[in-house]
User: Fold this.
Amino acid sequence: MPTKKALNHCIKILKDLVSFQVLGGQSNLEIMDYIISILNDAGIEFHLIPNTDLTKTSLLCRIGHPTDGGVILSGHTDVVPVAGQNWTTKPFVLTKKEDKLYGRGSCDMKGFLACCLASIEVFKKSDLKRPVYFAFSYDEEIGCLAGEELAAAVHHKYKEKPAFAIIGEPSMMHPVVGQKGICVLETTVNGSAGHSSRIKDEVSAIHVSARLIQWLEKKMDDYASGNIKDNRFNPPHSSIHVGKIQGGIAPNVIADKCTFYWDVRVIPGHDVRDIIKEFDVYSQSVESELQQKFPGFSIETREDHPPVPPLGTRNDSPVVDLIKKIIGNHHLQTVAYAAEAGQFSNEGFETIICGPGDIAQAHRADEFVAIEQLEQCLQMLENLAEEFSK
Assistant:
């Protein structure tokens, strides 16, 4: 196991990282300045991949010689809000209780970032035959908005090609070979207002929305009974969920506008664009039908953010062999949550998810990471350095 000094160093870094209140969508420059200060102190060169208005940035760096076959260690710097949650500790102050460290992001996923940063000296002192890269992003929590650009930037910033990517999302240090992809959509139905007694003469946006939602429910039932399955997941098919609906002004007024928000979570091998296309075709048929009654009727659907691709790493992938060596855990898992792993996989890196903490603790009040999980992650990174020094 890592030394007490190494663990304390990791916890000190985690304490600092938790103190930065960087929510998804907000500037992450302050937390990146802190990370950059650690890299500068260690003499490590880095590249920034900023957004267009320079308020946020991702970061890439390499430790070791520029040879093919290296591994990317990737995580995000943003967290979800704490408003409305009943915390018993201060969410942005790392608090130790027995064997747990409480704070927003301690689990998802600043614990992994702290382990990476605390392991810099281990990597530097090792005789690495293949390099280790850090790839830290922004706005993961609101749709993995920077992941695709960050993964692509690895090819642009470095001439050599890394072989692997380990995404440090909380997995209790179990290797995760699959994640579902996700796309969040907003559908707005524009109908005609009127007295509720005229429901057969007007077009209620709420009634039509209900019709569309029923179609989505039926489509998911089709997936449940269809041939596109992946039994590694629960449920083993793509799912569709409507989570929010807004419309109407009074019970006796026909609603002329209704908006509902839905998401599609796809298994590997199922293209979310196909699902959206089918919904658009159905929506167009409903439009054609109801414009006969009200010419101004329309259905508009937009993506809240670009689709996040799924991850479907093969059980015999070389990255599976690597992770088994460095963590000693051969039990492969899949997860239903979305992450940046599919984006790195799409760029040609053999990708796996493995990081400290339990996803059940993420996004909730009194989020924590067990100290034992940090120890296991630090040990994994020590083992990685040893493996890459052979």
About this structure: The CA atoms of residues 1 and 379 lie 6 Å apart.
